[in-house]
Each structure stands twice: as C-alpha cells, then as structure tokens.
Amino acid sequence: xxxxxxxxxxxxxxxARYERLVAAEDYCGRxxxxxxxxxxxxxxxxxxxxxGTGRLTRLLSPCVRQVQAFDRSGHMLQHAREHLQRECPANxxxxxxDNQDLxxxxxxxxxxxxxWSFGHSTVWNEKGWRVEVERAVGEMLRVLRPGGTAxxxxxxxxxxxxxxxxxxxxxxxYLWLERERGFARRWLRTDxxxxxxxxxxxxxxxxxxxxxxxxxxxxxxCVLPECTGIWWRRTPA
Length: 237
Known about the structure:
Layout: H1 7-13, H2 15-23, H3 31-38, E1 45-49, H4 55-60, E2 66-71, H5 74-87, E3 92-96, E4 109-115, H6 121-124, H7 129-143, E5 144-158, H8 168-179, E6 184-189, E7 192-193, H9 197-208, H10 210-215, E8 223-224, E9 226-234
Parallel strand pairs: 1-2, 1-4, 2-3, 4-5
Antiparallel strand pairs: 5-9, 6-9, 7-8
C-alpha cells in the first residue's frame, strides 16, 4: 500500500490536480446559498484566509463588493489568479500571507472567511494546533468591523452521509469553536461528482491516499457523499 499523501507538498506544487478535485465537490451548488443564508453578501467587503486555488474566491466575487484573499502558497495563488482573471469581475486581490498574520488593519471587513484551511493545523501540528488556530481565528475577528461575521468551513466527513468528523483533533477543534469561542454551526451535503470511476480513484487517491480511494463509497453515477460544516460568529455591533 502506498504511503499517505503529503498534503503540504500538494499545496506547494500540485495546484492543478488539487483544483480538479475541489471542482468536483458541491456539484449541486448548495454551498453559496448556505453561506448567503448565514450572512448577506451584497456590498460586503470580504477577507479570505487560506484561499488556495481560489475556490471560494470565485464563488463569492460575483456576489460581493470586494474580496481580499490570502494564502501562504504562492503556487496555489498563481493558479487562483489564472482562474479569477478568466471568470470573475475585477473586485478581488490575492497576496501571500499566513492565516496567523494577515497584512490588514483592524476592522476593514464585513466578512472574514476561511475554507478548509484551519483544520490542517490539527494534523500538521498535533500537539500545538490549539495555539495556531487561536491565532488564526483571532486574526479573522481582528479584521472584522463591528457587526461583521466570521465564517469557517471545514469537512465533517468525506464519504459520510451524516456528519462524522474524520479525526479526534478535528472534532476537538470544532468543539472548541462552539464551546469556547461562541461559534454557531450548521452542516450541509456538498457531495462530489466525478466524470468516471477512473477519475474518482485518481483524484481521491492523489489527495486522500490509495486505501481511501479503493474503499470510497461511490455511487453508480460516481457521486461521493461529503458533509461540510459552516461555523459562524458575529462581532458586537
């Protein structure tokens, strides 16, 4: 059996294949309406942490006034830029920055959002993740204006029909958000749909490992269940 993929290396050098994977998720288009149900998007100034290849950036850009998106991987941001230049209005900017140190002043955003980014600390820094996510969440709250909203999107289970956090540390992170930092939570299905079984096995193996890919509960139409959590918190007005 092959070793588990090094996801840090994927973010450093495999943006194109990563984009193919995330482009297969949420084929029913549920994510944007779910975000809009939590917070109004029209005329919002958005700060995005951990933007990656710009999946959320592209989703939000047509609906908001401005998106300032950051990621510490210049490789991922270059891929994001190519897509954004083709697909979105010119109301976005990209810059290299760590989630824990956003190069912005206080109170500049109506919405601060991070998608599938903070949870990596719970895997890459198993003993010190609490410090990292505390700083990252603190940065989100710092850049929000009074009455602004912080949103965090993370997986609640790939291949699961109902929420099942995939690791103990992720579950601990989610409980920390809810119990210690006052975030509310909702969840939705953002299932993957692949063009073929071959594509599904390739992309799932690339990111999750060959063992997961060989056992993934794909339907006959190459749909794979995915549960996504949205955590949000509004700052006092």
